[in-house]
Amino acid sequence: MRKRKQPYIGLACTNCRKSHARCSGNPICERCVNRNLICEYKKSGRKRGPKSKKQSFETMIDLKDS
After folding, report:
1. How far apart (Å, rounded) are the C-alpha atoms in residues 18 and 20?
2. Would residue 3 count as lying in a domain?
3. How far apart (Å, rounded) are the C-alpha atoms in residues 34 and 38?
4. Domain that holds residue 29
5. Angle at 42 between CA 36 and CA 46, to 5 degrees
6. What is the CATH number for 28?
7. What is the mean pLDDT of residues 36-53?
8. Closest by alpha carbon to 31, among 13, 50, 9?
9. Which parts of this chain are annotated as the region Disordered (predicted)?
10. Does residue 59 surpass a pLDDT of 90?
């Protein structure tokens, strides 16, 4: 018999994301409780999709100035 698949969690806590571990998705995840870690959910800051022309132009100017 196969094990049931765990449900997909949309956002993993910072500690689980760093170690590429399965996060339970609870406000304080099981992995952090077991390891006595501070469980924090922060936005990754990474955006998906192509960069807009305006953004890439502004970064080019910033690089040129420095």
Report:
1. 6
2. no
3. 11
4. 8-43
5. 135
6. 4.10.240.10
7. 79
8. 13
9. 44-66
10. no
